[in-house]
Amino acid sequence: MLTKVTEGIYLLVVQYRGGMGATNCYLVKGENGYTIIDTGVYSQQAIETWQKVLDSGIDVEKVVLTHVHQDHIGLAKWFQNKGVPIIVSKIGLGEMEKHRHPDFEKRMTRLLKSHGVTDVPKRLDWSNIYQFEPDTLFELGEKVKIGNEWYETIWTPGHSYDHFCFYNREKKLMFAGDHVLREISPVIGLWEGEEFNALQYYLDSIDRILQYSTDFALTGHGEPINNFKDRVLEIKDGHEKRLEQIYKIVKDEAKTALEVTLEVYGVVKQKYLASPFMASLTRLIYLEERGIVRRYEQNGVYTFKAT
């Protein structure tokens, strides 16, 4: 079940239906047991997968989370109930509290409707996986021990506001989470139902991550990355091309984020798909903040048009 990635680091792929379809979870060997980086989504299949790992005799020292999206934090509470300490950033705890809030779904529904989604789909209730208190919180710039070695924590908001990468300067090794992926560009979204300029955060984080010389990056989904700098620049270039495309779409006519999504990604009319919609919305907000497009409101629904 475990695949050796490099000396002392093993990969467990936790599969599930929907979304990315699988999450990479890493086990890093240490004197006191293994440090797990991310747990995968909460599901019976994932529980059975991890239980087989534990039954094989592997001792787990702690779980460290890159961010608190459902497919990364899903089994953290389950591990904690087994006596395994959970470590997350202080910023991540703040995001967890948003998911616990009873108005979370109402907030998300308001956001979607205000940007043109008329038929808001019923979402799975993930609130239960956030109903626990982490054992340890790390601050910005604080190092975290993973296995036997200390890793720098790099705050990389964008894909999620609380996202962190973990970097070993001596080995030039990075656990990149969902900040940089090899096969696809990470989706930048407003997953807590609150508007802010998430893409600006992401592009700033992309520039920040280039300051770290990285020979090998282990990602939250898909294959590891060897040519890390080239891949980062490729993702950045992809965003610039999408921004130019969206600008052209709203150059002559005001459109909602959903209408822009339909033109960019060609999805079925009036069908809401979370990732394409969020990618379009955050790009429109970015262009608005730059003064390149302007927002209009009519009957509680926003449209955007080039200035």
Describe the structure in your own words:
By secondary structure, this protein is α/β, with parallel strands linked by helices. The chain has a single domain, classed as Metallo-beta-lactamase, Chain A (4-Layer Sandwich), CATH 3.60.15.10. It is built from 9 helices and 14 strands. The strands form 3 sheets. It has a 7-stranded mixed sheet. A 5-stranded mixed sheet has the order 8-9-10-11-12, with no helix packed on it. A two-stranded antiparallel ribbon has the order 13-14. The radius of gyration is 20 Å and the shape is globular.
Brief digest:
The chain has 307 residues and is of the alpha/beta class.
Task: List the SSEs and their pairings.
Blueprint: E1 3-6, E2 9-15, E3 22-30, E4 33-37, H1 44-55, E5 60-64, H2 70-73, H3 76-81, E6 86-89, H4 90-100, H5 104-114, E7 136-138, E8 144-146, E9 149-155, E10 164-168, E11 173-177, H6 198-209, E12 216-219, H7 228-249, H8 257-265, H9 274-289, E13 293-298, E14 301-306
Parallel strand pairs: 4-5, 5-6, 6-7, 11-12
Antiparallel strand pairs: 1-2, 2-3, 3-4, 8-9, 9-10, 10-11, 13-14
Protein name: MBL fold metallo-hydrolase
Domain Metallo-beta-lactamase: 22-221
InterPro entries: Metallo-B-lactamas, RibonucZ/Hydroxyglut_hydro, Sec-metab_biosynth-thioest
